[in-house]
Design brief:
Length: about 375
């Protein structure tokens, strides 16, 4: 074969066939690595440490191990993570599990009640649930983590996009983001380094207790060392307006989502049918965050949402408290991790206030 023929061969279909074949092999190897490493904790593989832990998977595993099963639940978003089940048990006598899940909308609350109802032989007598504008927001998507957990996602029955499709699951294996994370995990393991983990996008790693209660690990370490600076943290986060950029109030608000209202009302109906006592509360905002929200004219939105929860909860015989303002339950503005997440002493005060009538009556 002369030089001209050789050049023609390598510049024609043969060359492109080899290139495509090599590229396909590389892509398949990357997909296999993503599946085995599972950096986002989606597929349930635990061969290597995940770089981003899936709180939905973790919480289900904790619930499965929590024996005997609970008769009381704490539900809500990450703002309920430091509500202490042990305090609830002390006040009510019910064995309690904190089933908070990040980004919980009304669909998540409905899903959890169905999971617990189907999978536990012990009836739930009491539910404490933290709610907010995001619970019924019309523009916030279902938490991505949840869509890939079949035990949760199977109950997203009113939203056609609630469950991840098989094609989406396969497609994730070929994303650059996941590939970079997988490569980082493999590199760290090969170098003998610890894999840096976060609990969800943007949230620091959490330390869980067996009953689902959680605290922010880094903040707790800083508090113990006397280096935690709440003012600086809030200032930095509010300067970026991270809270409002998430769309909880300013972006996309057109009134409560009809779909999420349906999930919420079906959640309450489940509780009524099962004789579950419901204690619901609007989650608090740090005063500096509330000032920003007031500047953004969010007050009417909060009142609209609070009125909706108050009406629906009291109609089914439950108890509702609006704790948006910290002074409504005697909270301390210094006892926060940031502008949204309270530390345990504030949550303890909130729970005592919320369950005051329960404590006085001594009935279930």
């Amino acid at each position: 074969m002369n030089s001209a023929e050789n050049n023609a061969r390598w510049s024609g279909p043969f060359f492109w066939g080899i290139l495509v074949s090599v590229a396909a092999v590389v892509v398949l190897i990357a997909a296999a690595m993503n599946y085995l490493v599972d950096p986002f904790d989606i597929y349930g593989n635990r061969y290597l440490p995940a770089s981003q832990l899936n709180n939905y998977r973790q919480k289900l595993e904790l619930f499965d191990k929590f024996q005997p099963p609970p008769s009381a639940l704490i539900l809500g978003s990450s703002r309920a993570m430091t509500c202490d089940p042990e305090l609830v048990s002390e006040i009510t006598g019910e064995r309690c599990f904190n089933f908070w899940l990040p980004g919980s909308g009304a669909e998540t609350l409905y899903a959890v009640m169905n999971v617990v109802g189907e999978e536990s032989d012990v009836p739930i007598n009491l539910v404490i649930v933290g709610v907010g504008v995001e619970t019924v927001h019309p523009a916030l998507p279902i938490q991505p983590e949840a869509r890939y957990i079949p035990r949760i996602a199977r109950w997203f029955v009113h939203d056609p996009h609630g469950r991840a499709t098989t094609l989406e699951r396969i497609g994730l294996l070929f994303t650059m983001d996941q590939t970079i994370r997988s490569a980082g995990v493999v590199y760290s393991v090969l170098r003998g380094r610890a894999v840096r983990q976060t609990s969800e996008a943007g949230m620091p790693r959490l330390d869980y207790r067996d009953d689902g209660y959680a605290v922010q690990a880094q903040a707790e370490a800083q508090l113990a060392a006397g280096t935690f600076d709440l003012d600086a943290k809030i200032e930095a986060r509010l300067r970026r307006r991270r809270f409002t950029e998430q769309g909880l109030v300013v972006s996309g608000w057109t009134g409560p989502s009809e779909t999420r209202k349906r999930y919420w009302e079906e959640f309450l109906n489940l509780c009524r049918e099962r004789n579950v006592r419901v204690y619901a509360f609007m989650t608090p905002a740090h005063p500096r965050l509330w000032s920003l929200l007031q500047e953004l004219d969010a007050g009417p939105v909060y009142r609209e949402v609070s009125d909706y929860f108050n009406r629906t909860v009291t109609e089914m015989g439950g108890t509702f408290r609006d704790y948006t303002l910290l002074e409504s339950f005697g909270g301390d503005p210094q006892l926060f991790y940031d502008e949204m997440h309270m530390r345990k002493p504030n949550c303890d005060e909130l729970i005592r206030n919320l369950l005051a009538s329960y404590e006085r009556s001594g009935t279930k």
